Structure formats: structure tokens, C-alpha cells
């Protein structure tokens, strides 16, 4: 029993020490700053920039691109690029000559090339099928005032305008504009601005009076031997005057005798 009571103070001491330690730890923990470990921030999400909208091509650009893609229309496409965009507009057909068709033309004359271009633009959209349905000698108005294109051949496989064949039918066609590739430059001088070729027109009738017949020919004799009414009047007057003179002379002689 004595030993039991002797261990009680020791146990009590240790219990008190443990309790004190716990209290000190709680106080220190309460008063010390709390270290808060922040969660790592998520990596930034990279949003790709939207792709640029495709460029909307003008009619001019579409036509020029089609000509260049064909490979042998560099002259006409270069001419179009050197001029204003408003030449290619809705409601027309461009008859584009191949590069070889420009051989011999002065390509450095902008005024000549512009004039040439104007009478290669029809003021209506024509697909190749619509052109083939046109009767022979049909005239097609152009952008050049007073100048028409003439259908000069409707033979199957040999359709021609101003004697130029269609080399690349419907080279471009979208309902607004049509491009027909041709193998020659239109010759409006030969086809007289779309009327009739000068060599096919009848010879003009001369308005000069026919020459007078030569003297001594039957025609001249007939002319001189046929007295007119005025000639008869003059002869009668001369006869009357002669008779009066004879009578007057006779009277004078008798008076003297």
C-alpha cells in the first residue's frame, strides 16, 4: 500500500507535465502564423487566333485569274490588269484573243489596245451554247459605240465571229460574266462595223453623164439631122424677112423708073 501511494505523486507529475506541454503546443500553434500552401495555378490556355476570312474576289480578279490559269492569254490578262476594274462588270461577254493573235499589233499603244478591247466586249452574257444558236449574219453589239460583231459561220464545229473561231469555249462563266477564248483579233474594218464586208457590196453606180457622141458617127448625124421645134421657128422667121426685103427692093426700083 505504501508503494502504491508513493507512485501517485510521480504519475501526477508526469500527467501534469504532459498536460502542460499540450497546452503550450496549442498556444504556440494558435499564435504562430499559419503557412498556407497555395494550390498551383492552372497553366494558361492559349486560344488560337481565328483564321482570316477568305478574300472575296471581284469579277475583274476572277476573269483575270481564269485567263492566267488557261496559260496562253497573258497579253489580254495583262491588258486588263493595266486598266480600271470597272471594264469587267455584270452582263457582258469578253471575247479574249489568244497570245498568238496579237502578233504584229503594237502592244505599246495603250489607246489602240483599249479600243481593241472595247469591241471584244459584248453587252450581253453569251454561253458557248447560246452563241451556237445564233443565226448566220447575226450582229452582236459591243462596248465600242456603233461597232458590232457578226456571226460569219454556223458550220458545226466551225462556229465563227468576224471570221475568228472559238478556241476555248466558256473559259469562264458564272451567269454574270462569260469569257470565250478566240483564236484571232476581231477585224471590224473588214466587216465594216458589223454590216457587210466591203468586198461583198455591189459596185457603186456612177452619176457622171455619158459622153457626147463623136462628130461623124451615126449618133451625131442623127442628132444634127433631126431639127427641133426651135429650129423650125427660126427658119420661118428668116423666110418672112427675106420676102419683105425682096418686095421692098422691087418697089424702090419701080419708083426710080
Q: How would you characterize this protein structure?
A:
- The protein is of the alpha+beta class.
- It has a domain of 142 residues: FAS1 domain.
- Helix content is 39%, strand content 14%.
- The protein contains seven helices and seven strands.
- It has a seven-stranded mixed sheet.
- Helix 2 packs antiparallel against helix 3.
- The longest helix is centred in the first third of the chain and has 30 residues.
- It is rod-shaped and about 140 Å long.
What fraction of the residues are assigned to beta strands by DSSP? 5-15%
List low-pLDDT spans: 1-5, 194-210, 219-227
Radius of gyration computed on alpha carbons: 57 Å
Q: Can you tell me the CATH architecture of the domain at 59-200?
A: Roll
The percent range for helix content is 25-40%
- Mean pLDDT across the residues is 75
Q: Spatial order of the strands in the main sheet?
A: 2-1-7-6-5-4-3
Could you give the order of the helices and strands? HHHEHEHEEEEEHH
Amino acid at each position: 500500500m505504501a508503494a502504491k501511494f508513493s507512485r501517485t505523486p510521480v504519475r501526477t507529475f508526469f500527467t501534469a507535465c504532459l498536460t502542460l506541454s499540450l497546452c503550450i503546443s496549442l498556444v504556440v500553434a494558435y499564435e504562430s502564423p499559419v503557412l498556407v500552401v497555395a494550390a498551383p495555378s492552372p497553366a494558361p490556355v492559349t486560344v488560337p487566333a481565328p483564321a482570316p476570312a477568305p478574300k472575296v474576289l471581284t469579277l475583274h480578279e476572277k476573269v483575270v485569274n481564269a485567263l492566267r490559269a488557261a496559260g496562253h492569254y497573258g497579253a489580254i490578262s495583262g491588258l486588263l490588269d493595266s486598266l480600271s476594274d470597272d471594264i469587267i462588270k455584270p452582263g457582258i461577254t469578253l471575247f479574249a484573243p489568244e497570245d498568238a493573235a496579237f502578233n504584229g499589233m503594237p502592244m505599246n499603244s495603250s489607246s489602240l489596245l483599249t479600243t481593241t478591247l472595247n469591241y471584244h466586249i459584248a453587252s450581253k452574257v453569251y454561253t458557248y451554247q447560246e452563241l451556237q444558236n445564233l443565226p448566220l449574219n447575226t450582229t452582236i453589239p459591243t462596248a465600242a459605240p456603233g461597232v458590232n460583231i457578226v456571226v460569219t459561220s454556223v458550220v458545226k464545229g466551225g462556229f465563227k465571229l468576224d471570221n475568228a473561231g472559238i478556241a476555248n469555249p466558256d473559259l469562264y462563266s458564272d451567269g454574270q460574266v462569260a469569257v470565250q477564248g478566240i483564236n484571232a483579233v476581231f477585224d471590224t474594218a473588214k466587216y465594216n462595223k458589223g454590216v457587210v464586208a466591203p468586198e461583198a457590196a455591189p459596185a457603186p453606180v456612177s452619176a457622171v453623164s455619158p459622153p457626147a457622141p463623136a462628130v461623124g458617127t451615126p449618133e451625131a448625124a442623127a442628132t444634127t439631122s433631126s431639127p427641133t421645134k426651135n429650129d423650125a421657128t427660126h427658119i420661118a422667121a428668116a423666110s418672112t424677112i427675106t420676102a419683105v426685103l425682096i418686095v421692098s427692093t422691087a418697089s424702090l426700083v419701080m419708083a426710080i423708073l
